[in-house]
Specification:
The chain has 16 helices and 17 strands. A five-stranded antiparallel beta sheet has the order 2-1-5-4-3. A five-stranded antiparallel beta sheet has the order 7-6-10-9-8. It has a five-stranded mixed beta sheet with strand order 12-14-15-17-16.
Length: 612
Amino acid sequence: MRNKGKEMLSSSSFRFKVMFISIICLVIPATLTLFIYNYLTKDTIKEQAQLNANTELTIANEYVEKLLEDMMYITNFIQVDAEMNTILKRKIKSAVEQTEEQKYQQFLDDSKINKTLENITLVGEKSYVTILLKNGISYTNYSNSELDPTDLYMEDWFKELNNIKGYETVWIRSQPTMFKTEKPINPYQISVARTLRDESLNIYGYVTVTIMENNINQVFENMNGDEDMILLDSSNHIISHNNDSRIGEQFQYSNQLTEENSSNIFRISKKDYLIAEQKISFTGWKLVSIIPYKQATNKINGIFNKLFIVQVVSFTIFLILMTYFLRTITKPIVRLGNVADLVQQGNLNIRSRIQSKDEIGRLSASFDQMLNTINDMIRDITDTQERKRKAELDMLQAQINPHFLFNVLNSIRMKVMVKGDKESANMISSLSKLLRMTISKDKEIITFQEEVQIVLDFINIMNMRQKEKVNVEITIHEETNLIMIPRFILQPIIENSIIHGLNQSAGKIIVNAEMTENEVMIIVEDNGGGMDEQTLFQLKRKFIHSNTLDISTSKNNKGFSSIGISNVYERMYMTFGEEFKMDIKSELGKGTQVIMSIPKGGRRPNVQSNAS
């Protein structure tokens, strides 16, 4: 038998072997775990049932205490409120015959007390408040047709009020309802009473607060559990229960109540019951719940049944997932084989792209790297051929020597000057300088002084092209002449000022360079048309959100060209880094100002390069 099993496993597929071993390793531990779990959780079930009963009772107790605390709050408020006590004491001393002013004061006092009673009973369950003074005056938040307040003097519990001390309270357990409109729907009421005392601790009045017993019973009915909840007084008489006929009776299982805030299991007629109790501290009453023990453990037992079902379902899902993962493990190998076949057919752009970190993943990565290397070698050979052809073309183009153009321009300038046209000769000279600086590849970084000379040559040419001339004022700190900057930094800004700011009309451009302790400030300002606030706002917003300045040309050509300014910003940012700052200020009709700030310790001139 054993040999047969070994032979069957050896002849089976790798997938079957993994699945069979996984099932064995899963079923045996799961079965043992479930058996041990059921054995060890018997006591836990009992503890959990008691815990659940206490939890439900605690929740109900909080609601009941809230109702009773609201009643206490009303009595406390009436007893300690200074204004109300002053009015009530004045009522005790009021004379039979009163003047008109006294009658009016009495009317105001009555209104204040009635308003106060109304306000303190707005929140919470409906309650009936009665204030009785010893001279027969009474205040209520209900109509006298409901109940004559003096009827309270006839109640047995009212006699106890004269025997209590200070702020002591008398809690009156459930009694037949005294309010006419409540009797048909609420047969019982619960009350709390307290005395009102003056500075000499003499009683001058009484206050009672009453709610319907049904308010407490409603709390029991709203609980989610199946417990039978009962409110008992200190002598274990029933105060509130869902069966009205039992109210006032002695609780039949009083001997099972062992201690405060506890639970117990007792047996009646061969049936176990779970009883729990919690005390309401400020009344001396207690809340009790009774539930059949089997019913109390139904939910917990149901959890264990569900746990068994979950384990079966989990086992089934595991088998499905295991099959899926086995296919996932073998799928990369199949994928790698298919890629190899396509490569063999000449497709060098295909890749396996297997991302796993196991041996198959490493093999796939090596295979893809080999294909990448082959493609790189092919591209290198292709690029080499292209560069070779381009070099041959450059050699042909280089045969036209730029110096030849400079010499021709100088010859033209000399002939023009000989004929007496100095203005045209100067223009040709400026053009020759700009052309030489543009074509030169050796001077990417120049001094600020050289950059200013480029600007002067450029303005000279522009003034020759335009009907109206542009005046330029240059104020430069002596030390700034040696600051090294990329070439053609000021020229695009000046060009924008002439074309867009001044609209190719007469105007003034001011170039100012100042040296401070930490930075060099370069300011280019014109007195042209400027920009409106919206255009300027959008422009500055792009300064904040992008390292590359992108200034759109306005529709009326009164802004800056984005191409030239963006190029200036990018080259200056690449040269000086984050320490370079650039800003544009403009007002419509008042011109535009471009401000650039570079670090004082920026690039310095190289003597050898300048000499060259």
